[in-house]
Write a structure and sequence with these properties.
Rossmann fold; single chain; 7 helices; 12% strand; 3-stranded parallel sheet; two-stranded parallel sheet
Length: 145
């Protein structure tokens, strides 16, 4: 029976940054096991969000680098990401539309499962994402796009 487990952000970060040699070697070996089919690595959207935030705020990587690295990781053999297509599109939006990853993910998730509308005070970011926005406290007819 194939081993299967959820990935924590620290394992993903050690693999992507290689900033701690021993932990990088161990995470790289785990990825090799996943690629060979010996293990299945499950990845939750909240973990991706934590990795994006850490790569941006702590490591100072560009949106382009973060988007590319994580898109490759999410698409790697042996990695089973929940809502993979939603995550990949959210990473593209994060990179190309200059919005927070969490906002991009929420917009794509809303489109995927419906309804494709979001109550928000952040009209600036959501207007770039193409979902209907609703402002709390305003009548439903006051919705904007």
């Amino acid at each position: 029976m194939k081993r299967e487990a959820w990935l924590d952000a620290n394992v993903v970060l050690r693999f992507l940054t290689a900033d701690h040699p021993e932990m990088y070697d161990r995470s790289r070996a785990l990825m090799a096991q996943a690629e060979s089919g010996d293990v299945k690595l499950r990845l939750a959207p909240i973990t991706v969000a934590e990795v994006v935030w850490t790569l941006d705020s702590f490591y100072g990587l560009s949106r382009q680098a973060i988007g590319e690295k994580l898109t490759q990781f999410v698409s790697a053999e042996g990695v089973e990401a929940e809502e993979k297509g939603v995550i990949i599109q959210a990473l593209r939006d994060y990179r190309e539309k200059n919005v927070d990853f969490a906002d991009a993910y929420l917009a794509r998730h809303a489109e995927h499962v419906g309804p494709a509308r979001v109550f928000t005070f952040d009209l600036k970011h959501f207007s770039r994402l193409g979902v209907e926005t609703l402002t709390p406290g305003e009548p439903a007819s006051g919705a904007s796009r």
